[in-house]
Amino acid sequence: MASLSEKEAEAYLDARPRYPIDWYKKIAARTLDHKFAWDVGTGNGQAAIGLVEHYENVVATDINEAQLTRAIKHSRISYHHTPKNMSEDEMVALIGGENSMDLIVAAQAVHFFDLTTFYNVAKRVLRKEGGLIAVWVYNDIIISPEIDPIMKRLVDSTLPFRTPIMNLAFDSYKTLPFPFESIGMGSEGKPITLDIPHKLSLKGFLGFLRSWQPAMKAKEQGVELVNEDLITKFEEAWGDENQVKDVYYKAHMIVGKIQEMRCESDDQVSEDSNKDLLLQTEVGRKQERRQPSDEDTRQSKKQNTSEDEGHEAC
Ligand SMILES: C[S@@+](CC[C@H](N)C(=O)[O-])C[C@H]1O[C@@H](n2cnc3c(N)ncnc32)[C@H](O)[C@@H]1O
């Protein structure tokens, strides 16, 4: 913990975390080749920038053209707009063709997608041999023993206002359909849990709360969840307003490959192979192994009718 200099204050205004570089390294170590990666739902390109350290070329796409104009430029990253009406064939051709991608990443994004279209395209462009697809989401933020219970009450209060998209994210991707074969880094219904460390100022935290999508949804229905009373509670619990806190986000990841045709006796997946990623957190060690219920799956399928495509769900 430290006090904010003016420059730091700028940097810490943003409550969105950067993904640990270690993640890209560990996932890249599991793909056979390192020529092409696709960052889908790239936003400002932060995952694309991480991937370009390990792949010769990164294709980064987003449905929101305005996002792309603000994305971080790099000579080996090509950014492309993929409008909603783009056909699967057009998308496959744009990204690089059939069987071309060594890695597909959807960082904090797949819950916004039309999953049928995305998975159809992903299965076509992903390399059948040695190609991987990784999806992750972060949700809970762990700040301090004073702040966390207030945050938990706020999170609970969003329940009646959540969209199916938000539920996928709040549910830590446990109900996300993921039709790929596990490589030991999570699987459908059983994501691995990881920590993302981050430095956060009070100003950044309050800025994040004020634009937090679940609270915005409540506001649309006339309910002000992030009201002045709550803000005061957070300010008091924070303590010194100039203090930058070391916080962390809980992230949930699934990595898979194209399903191989094989007999059941071969179906022993090595959950050991990525122990080092898993063992980064206590939660990872204790992670529950829940299968999605029929109701969960129905709910997550409904999310394709997205009314809030593209922006932070949580
Ligand atoms: C929460 S942002 C995440 C951005 C970035 N991947 C990151 O981790 O910071 C979600 C992104 O997904 C994009 N998105 C939503 N639906 C999409 C779709 N069907 N195809 C491509 N991008 C989409 C949004 O425009 C937005 O930029």
Automatic annotation (TrEMBL):
Gene Ontology molecular functions: S-adenosylmethionine-dependent methyltransferase activity
GO cellular component: nucleus
Ranges where the record places region Disordered: 265-314
InterPro entries named in the record: Methyltransf_11, SAM-dependent_MTases_sf
All residue ranges annotated as the Methyltransferase type domain in the record: 39-133
Positions with biased composition (Basic and acidic residues): 283-299
Pfam families referenced in this protein's UniProt entry, alphabetically: Methyltransf_11
PANTHER family from the UniProt entry: EMBRYONIC ABUNDANT PROTEIN-LIKE, OS01G0589200 PROTEIN
Listed name of the protein: Methyltransferase type 11 domain-containing protein
Organism for this UniProt entry: Eutrema salsugineum
